[in-house]
Amino acid sequence: MGLSHMAKAVVFEEAGYSWLGPTALNIHAPDEGNIHLMEEVATPAQKERWLRPQVQGLTRSCFAMTEPGPGAGADPSMLQTFAVRDGDDYVINGRKWFITGAEGATYTIIRARMEDGSATMFLSDMDRTGIVLERHMDAMDRCFTGGHGVLRFDNLRVPASDVLGQVGKGFRYAQVRLAPARLTHCMRWLGQARRAHDTAVAYASQRQAFGQAVAAHEGVGYMLADNDMDLQTARLHIWHTAWMLDQGHPCNFESSRAKVVCSEAEWRVVDRCVQILGGQGVTGEKEVMQIFTDMRAFRIYDGPSEVHRWSMARKIVQSAEVKSA
Ligand SMILES: Cc1cc2nc3c(=O)[nH]c(=O)nc-3n(C[C@H](O)[C@H](O)[C@H](O)COP(=O)(O)OP(=O)(O)OC[C@H]3O[C@@H](n4cnc5c(N)ncnc54)[C@H](O)[C@@H]3O)c2cc1C
To answer: Atom 52 of ligand 1 has which residue's CA nearest to it?
Structure first.
């Protein structure tokens, strides 16, 4: 629809309030991030072939970056999937895991290492000979269509015309994808955290303990107030970063900051909601248990909190050195 990042912040939060919202609007991960990257980098022919049916909601995609040890994970430069030029093709070999939506995806974006050590993004249909979905991973969350798969590339042959963007620019394109994609995760999870909070408020207002509503006890009231502050802090970080992206800033620092603040604040909200709901919080009788188990991984994917803090710290120190020089 051509929405600005600011407009997306409003729509994605509302969509995230519902379990089905992001899927119904075709703005769930990993498709939404892939759509953004394809729009920025793909050739007109690649867009016609893969992007158009995807935005029409006819197909799904996956993004294959993370690898089993000793490959790429929190440190994406450790890529062990290799692409070697062979005539007009590239031949790709390697393994990837945690690949969300691999089952049922029509195409994948693969990040592979070149002979000179640089990285390149490749596009491939998932039904090509040479792509094997080895197994599904038994993950804590249930919210992503297709779950998370382990992929193997056995001499996967990709024509040079299916390179996404320029050869050797894979690390840069990962940033093009990840900064806005991180933020849209924050937006959708904000909707889920708000929903958990609303459920907790309703429960605490109705449920009685020691002669009054649970919410009237100071300990619970403070948790509700803390929830409100965490929700609003997360929202303002999202809106500020979205506004900066709309002004054309790359926002690598800001999106790291928003990702850490949101993933931790939204998690605290949901954890408090479990507590407020008492035993109900850890049963499927209320939606909060599912939100709790679905959300935990958000502090790990798209960069663990520790890696974002570490990367922010380096930029803070560098910028202080530049100022003092
Ligand atoms: C639900 C889910 C969905 C995912 N979907 C996808 C997908 O679709 N495609 C894809 O390619 N990947 C996907 N991933 C993978 C995800 O991007 C990685 O899990 C993440 O980058 C961390 O890599 P890792 O698991 O290998 O952790 P590791 O690299 O093994 O790191 C383990 C831990 O070490 C710590 N650590 C690492 N570096 C530092 C540092 N510099 N400072 C301090 N601590 C540090 C962190 O606590 C980190 O959590 C998904 C993961 C999950 C859980």
So the answer is: 301
Pocket test for ligand 1, best of 153, 307, 309, 311 (most atoms within 8 A of CB): 307
For the chain, the three-class secondary structure string (H helix, E strand, C coil) is CCCCHHHHHHHHHHHHHCCCHHHHCCCCCCHHHHHHHHHHHCCHHHHHHHHHHHHCCCCCEEEECCCCCCCCCCCHHHCCCEEEEECCEEEEEEEEEEEECCCCCCEEEEEEECCCCCEEEEEEECCCCCEEEEEECCCCCCCCCCCEEEEEEEEEEEEHHHEECCCCCHHHHHHHHHHHHHHHHHHHHHHHHHHHHHHHHHHHHHCEECCEEHHHCHHHHHHHHHHHHHHHHHHHHHHHHHHHHHCCCCCHHHHHHHHHHHHHHHHHHHHHHHHHCHHHHHCCCCCHHHHHHHHHHHHCCCCCHHHHHHHHHHHHHHHHHHHHC
User: pLDDT tens across 281-318, in order?
Assistant: 999 999 999 999 999 999 999 999 999 999 999 999 99
Task: Give the residue, out of 80, 98, 305, with the most ligand 1 atoms within 8 A of its beta carbon, to mutate for a pocket test.
Answer: 98
pTM for this one? 0.96
Residue-level pLDDT at 174: 81
pLDDT, tens digit, for every residue of 2-13? 899 999 999 999
